[in-house]
Amino acid sequence: MSATWFPLALVLHATGVALALVLHRRPAACRWAAFLASAAGSAATFALGASVLATGRAVRGVLFENPAAGMTVGYSVDPLSAWFLVTFAVLAAPVAVYSVGYLAHGIPPGRTAFVAVAWNVLLMSVETVFAADGVLGFLVAWELMSLATAALVATDHESRPSRRSAFLYLAMSHLGTGCLVAGFFLLAAGSGSLAFADILGGAVTASPWRGLLFVLFLVGFGVKAGVVPLHVWLPEAHPAAPSNVSALMSGGLINAGLYGLVRVGAGGLGRPDPGWGMGVLLLGSVSAVLGVLYALSENDLKRLLAFSTIENGGIALMAFGAGMIGLSAGRPELGALGFAAGLYHVLNHAAFKGLLFLGAGGVVAATGTRRIEELGGLIHRMPRTAGLFLLGSAAIAGLPLLNGFASEWLVFQSLLRGFFFAERLTRIVLPLGGALLALTSALAAACFVKAFALTFLARPRSRAAAEATESSALLLAPQAFLAAACVALGLFPGPVLRVLAGVAGSLPGIGPQAGFTGGLAGVTIGVPAFDHLSPLVLVPAVALGLGLAAALGLRSARVPRRAPAWGCGGELSAETEYTATAFAKPLVMVFRGIYRPTREVSTVETAPYFASEVRYRSEIGAPFERHVYGPATRAVLAAAGRLRVIQAGSLHAYLAYVLVLGVILLWWLGGLP
Amino acid sequence: MTTNPLPVALFAVAQAVGFLMLAPLLRGLIKKMKAAFQLRQGPRLLQPYSDLAKLLRKEPVRSTTASWVFVAGPRVYFASAVTATTLLPTVFAAAPLEAAGGILLLVGLLALGRFALATAALDTGSPFGGMGASREMTVGALAEPALMLALFTAGLSAGSLNLGELVRHTAERGTSIHPGEILAAAALFIVLLAEAGRVPIDNPATHLELTMIHEAMVLEYSGADLALVEWASGVKELLFMTLLAGLFFPIGVATSLAPQALAISALALLAKVAALALLVVLVESTNAKLRFFRVPELMAVALGLGFLALAMRFF
Amino acid sequence: MIQDFVILCAAGMLVTVYLMVGQRALVVAIRLYGVQSLLLGAVGIAIGVADHRPHLLVTAALTVVLKAALIPWFLLRVIDRVGIRREIEPFVNVPASLLLCLGLTVVGYRVSLGMAGASQGVPHQVVGVALSMVLMGLFLMVTRRKALTQILALLTIENAVFLVAVGATSGMPLIVELGISFDVILAVLVLGVLVNRIVDRFESMDTSRLSNLRG
Hints:
The complex is a heterotrimer.
Chain A: H1 5-22, H2 27-55, E1 59-66, E2 71-77, H3 79-106, H4 112-131, H5 135-153, H6 160-191, H7 196-199, H8 210-225, H9 234-240, H10 243-265, H11 274-296, H12 301-328, H13 332-367, H14 378-381, H15 383-396, H16 403-417, H17 424-456, H18 463-466, H19 473-491, H20 493-505, E3 516-518, E4 523-525, E5 531-533, H21 535-554, E6 561-563, H22 580-590, H23 592-595, E7 597-607, E8 610-620, H24 623-643, H25 651-670
Antiparallel strand pairs in A: 1-2, 3-4, 4-5, 7-8
Chain B: H1 5-37, H2 47-57, E1 61-63, H3 68-85, H4 103-121, H5 127-158, H6 163-173, H7 179-195, H8 214-217, H9 223-248, H10 259-286, H11 295-314
Helix pairs in contact in B: 1-9, 1-10, 2-9, 3-4, 3-9, 4-5, 5-7, 5-11, 7-9, 7-11, 9-10
Chain C: H1 2-22, H2 26-50, H3 54-82, H4 94-114, H5 124-143, H6 147-168, H7 174-202
Helix pairs in contact in C: 1-2, 1-5, 2-3, 2-6, 3-7, 4-5, 5-6, 6-7
């Protein structure tokens, strides 16, 4: 029965596409039909994933078969795929509902059908990526996913920055896909089969190309996961897309890259080398720290969230790296811990990042601007959005009782637990990773204080913010759902970890492990216990604390007096408020070695001796664009310029190329028996 | 949970109340000692209690631009500090809510408090609130990793991140002091100064807004709101001192419930805290407050000490 | 005997291509193409009769009608319309072209030697002829300027492919052959229209001037 759910999901999405095309002249009907179909497809995917996770047995099937060509495209939903499918569905379903409301005003009505079609195609291809059982199906779905995403990023194609973002996305995506194709075909050539069960089942242990293969896959999947230094497309593409698409991209599409990395790293190519795990851990740490640092310096709300996605991807990678180090040292229980931590973080990230992007979308729709410097005071105009955004910010900052804390806690466990067994080099790397994770977590808290407080609190800094209206229920309900998910995942890590133990156990080279136990109350790591976490125990304590605080405050006054804040004798207004740039400035100064900020101050004097205008311009350096991608692009263009000579423009020249090539080939092949 | 929740709950409540009751006394003691250094008489030892009682009676005045976040900030800060105290072992070699979590949860709760207070500070629209919040988050961003590294050193040497387990391990092992642990204690002391807002990082008695870090964040609070913030800050200070004392100088901690052991342990704890308070006063009296952009350098020193501690302990 | 007949026809086709290379009047080139297609039809009929493949007869008849009659007529009409009757000086002059074509023939034969015994029913020389025709057709396309000559060269290549298909395979399905024939018709129609348009626009059939359009 559950074997038919995957094709059913694909059919539902295809129905969405068809409905969108049929109803393209009626935007409202188009939206409702296409996105409800999409939500239904996500529900089917969720059911499938949940059933596989519950039973622990994989579900397989065939989508398309051509015996004459020997080509089969099938799907195989094992616990790992099921986990990613569930994560994706948990995000995609509410975002689809949100889209119905958001696209009413977020995009021109004529483009609704386009977005609806591209959306459903995107969902179909992502689900196939997670479930594909062979190279062919995977690569076709992967490419389709990239194309659909690029189409969605370029929704606002009149604007040049949007076009540029989509182009950058496509270029980086193809760089990654090229590496993947090379990697897969190297693997297939070695073992003669295109099925994942054969080539990624841990059988390829002794090939001399293993290191190269791992690097190829790391680059290929790393581009999609937004790993530094392959991340340059992410801060451009995610904000350029409409907010519902951004939510899906940040919370769902990153997972495609992470899925691939887990497949390859968790024993897919055999036991990982120690260097692999350390490389992944270091890349993850760098991504996490740089991601959050750049997020801190951003004043565009969606770009801030995009950089934060890079940070969270880095955290998941750190966990995967720790898991790989565990596997390479022959300690599968530590491997299980690392991978479980990373997978938990993937789910949590989908929940809170989706919530934050949907909230940001609501703000952008209500005020028309993404810039924090033009927002403010929205808590009075949009109270529910503000409350939900606050919850999302608290979750992403890793504050206890919410899901961000739970998964970061688990990542810390995986980093610290592995400390005792490993050799010297790993012993340095693991606590370094732990320190960087602690730094990241603290910086993320600072970043989201900025994001929430400067957007929603104090006074509005522009007319648009002063006149904003609350989002409709259609936009708020999905956010409430995701917020509830954040709370649930934070309060009940035990059941989640029980499921994750099964998922990690299904990975090749791990097997069922008792590295951690999860009950309803909480989680225990290690036997004997290395650490516990039981948020439920803390809840009554926190409640009592709050109650005590409330009780203490009761005596003072029933109705507190309201008065304007003291402005040192002057008047406080929107201009005297602390700005977003100012908030982040101390941290920018502390980390100026990384940021390399530049500063330009110029004064304009009209009357002699009195400056009437001072211009201040400050910019954060973009090191990767300037030092890596700039020179690389210039080199490629220079080489292409030199090769341009071949393009003679003459028909005869081109035909001559064909003739010469034909003669050479015939001569060479003709001589062969 | 297999154990009966009632004794655990009572233990937790008792410990929290104990911290709440003793925190103002610690404040008063530090003020008195600082005054003694300056050859003054200083305020009464029990003055902070009177101050809190006075504030609790007064009417809070709140800004017209402030929302519920402003009101929630002090309360969440208070609740997080009080809850954090139940994770620490004090007189007995076990923490009441040990099962809830260990080092990471403790640090997380403190971060929750800081987040709530910083967010609330930006709610009034006053630039000082923003400045205070920004500076506090900066110092916190650098102090938290240092704190974690120091605690990890202690935790890893005991083989557990659970604070109760840690204290039990060090109590059993005796007082063999490893140089790495001294470095970790030093790092933790610097973090204590940062979290308590003491010289050389912050001057708790300053009136100049542009030199404030913590005080600027809470500039707009009055009445019960201010009382909650002050009390919670005092609890945090006592918490850090207890943590430092318990983790690195576990002499005299009771491992059984015998009244004698508990009494000795309580006295020992009070003595340790008093000694730490004296050390804090010494540092405060002999140092000038650092310029704000020198504070990260000090925190970097703490971070370096923490890392060095870890390296020394395990190589 | 049928074999010899087939070889003779194939050789005749090769001769027509040489003649196409060697002279400049477009009308004659078109007529030569017609003769070539006729010979191809003859080959088809011979093999169809010898190997008892009735559908080959249908194909051969189609070939004769379409390629030996219809297409040459159409192309002659195009020439009338356009009014250009002679090819201008090609890139490679005629004696040199002929020498190069000899070289290409040698290449074709060398490949066919490697296939001796591999083809059924048809002697490998025919395959060699066909390959040579392909190469020479390509060569014509490279060195001639007029679009019409290039069309004829394309058609020559198509004939050569057809020759190999008819002989070397066990017969293509009728559907495929019909499809190919109609493809050819369509291609010629389109190309004819294109030639008209090119001449209207640029007043010349000289495709080397198209490189002025390069961006």
